[in-house]
């Protein structure tokens, strides 16, 4: 016959073994992994679309200003060519000097506009990437992921089982958050 203290001892031993087994399992459990298709996520994100829209409007405005200056230069050049024979040598030299100065200013303006457009594109892109990366970090923590990888065109992930593809789910939640955000970029 088993006495009461033996039952308590056996129960305590079983509980200890169970606790040890749970601890070992927790130590050796497989990490939760996932990946997102970065290009699809970036292109499908509403914040990207809005940033591209703002970028296009600003670029078009700056390009229109550059076109206006180019048209003014072309009119001045055409006028100079049309009236070339009517001008004396001194007037020709003065007009050539003014055309050269105007052309230099036009070239500098175009370079400045191009640099500003590139800078704005980089700033908008980086802002969107920061939003996406911050969201993915929060999403990973909230859903217990150890690692979330991002695919890119250079192939940092060549293959991933579709069961681990989080792109659609993350994009959906990211866009919901963006729509409800009062301070969109």
CATH superfamily annotation of the largest domain? Skp domain
| Count of runs of 4 or more consecutive helical residues | 5
Could you say what the CATH architecture of the largest domain is?
A: 2-Layer Sandwich
Total number of strands: 2
Strands across the major sheet, in which order?
1-2
How many whole angstroms does the radius of gyration measure?
33 Å
Instruction: Report the uncertain regions.
Output: none
Briefly note the CATH topology name of the largest domain.
Answer: Protein Binding, DinI Protein, Chain A
The geometry reads as rod-shaped
Secondary-structure element pattern, one letter each: HEHHHEH
Biggest sheet, open or closed, and with what strands and sense?
2 strands, parallel
What portion of residues belong to β-strands? 5-15%
**Tally of structural domains:** 2
CATH class of the largest domain: Alpha Beta
Overall pLDDT: 85
Helix content: over 70%
Structural class, please? mainly alpha
Q: Between the first and last Cα atoms, what is the distance in angstroms? A: 76 Å
């Amino acid at each position: 016959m088993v006495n009461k203290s033996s039952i308590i001892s056996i129960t305590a031993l079983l509980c200890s073994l169970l606790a040890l087994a749970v601890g070992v399992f927790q130590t050796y459990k497989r990490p939760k992994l996932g990946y997102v298709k970065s290009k699809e996520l970036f292109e499908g994100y509403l914040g990207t679309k809005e940033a591209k829209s703002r970028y296009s409007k600003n670029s078009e405005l700056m390009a229109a200003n550059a076109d206006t200056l180019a048209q003014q230069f072309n009119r001045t050049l055409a006028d100079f060519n049309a009236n070339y024979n009517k001008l004396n040598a001194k007037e020709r030299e003065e007009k050539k000097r003014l055309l050269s100065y105007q052309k230099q200013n036009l070239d500098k303006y175009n370079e400045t506009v191009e640099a500003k457009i590139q800078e704005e594109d980089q700033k908008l892109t980086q802002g969107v990437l920061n939003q996406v990366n911050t969201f993915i970090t929060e999403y990973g923590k909230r859903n217990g992921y150890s690692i979330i990888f991002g695919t890119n065109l250079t192939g940092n992930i060549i293959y991933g089982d579709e069961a681990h593809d989080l792109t659609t789910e993350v994009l959906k939640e990211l866009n919901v958050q963006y729509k409800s955000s009062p301070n969109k970029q």
